[in-house]
Amino acid sequence: MTAFLFETKQPLLRLSNYKSSISLLVMVLSLVLLTAAACQTGGEKPKTWTVFLEEGHAALKAGDGKTAQDSYEHAVHDAEKKFGAESPQALIALGYLAQLYKQMGEWKLAYVTYKRLVPLKEKIDPTAKDDIKQFKDDFAVVKQKLKDYGISTGDEPKEKKVSKKPTRRRKRKH
User: Between the CA of residue 5 and those of 20, 44, 81, 157, what are the distances in Å?
Assistant: First the structure.
């Protein structure tokens, strides 16, 4: 039996030829595996940071804070990966995540996020004075909540312990 390549009547593969049979088998298996992989992912492209943001907004609107949190965290990760940790895209995603943490009462997570967000906003968009002020005000609220609840951030200055050892007086030599 001989297979022909389209209408050229050129033999593509003779099944009696062992090496060609193995090559055909490898090609067919590769094609099957690639098709199966495409079917598993639905043939969809990976989600982008903007899609994650949209999903977060929708989840938040539906009252699903946990899904919104996951989506915003993915948006931050994707934006940082594609554009850099100090990119405007990462800044936008961080802003939504910080606000969500604050809204959910996740004070320590909000603290860490605002601590990064405020200087990044000042660096990327120093003319946005109102936005910077709002972020700083939100950060102050988060800091106060941490203090009210006695939650440590690890950034607090450590108090120096003063020991009250009695001082020795030197005896004078006469």
Answer: 14, 32, 45, 77
Q: List all residues 6 or more positions away from 97 whose beta carbon is below 8 Å from its beta carbon.
A: 69, 72, 73, 75, 76, 113
Q: Residue 22 pLDDT > 60, yes or no? A: no
Residue 9 phi/psi, 5-degree rounding, is 60, 20
Q: Is 63 exposed, middle or buried (0-12, 13-18, 19+ CB in 10 A)?
A: exposed
Backbone angles phi, psi at 11, to 5 degrees: -65, 125
| Mean pLDDT score across all residues of the chain | 81
Distance of CA 103 to the CA centre of its chain: 19
- Cβ–Cβ under 8 Å, residues 73 and 81: no
For the full predicted model, state whether its pTM sits above 0.70: no
Separation of alpha carbons 130 and 121, rounded Å:
11
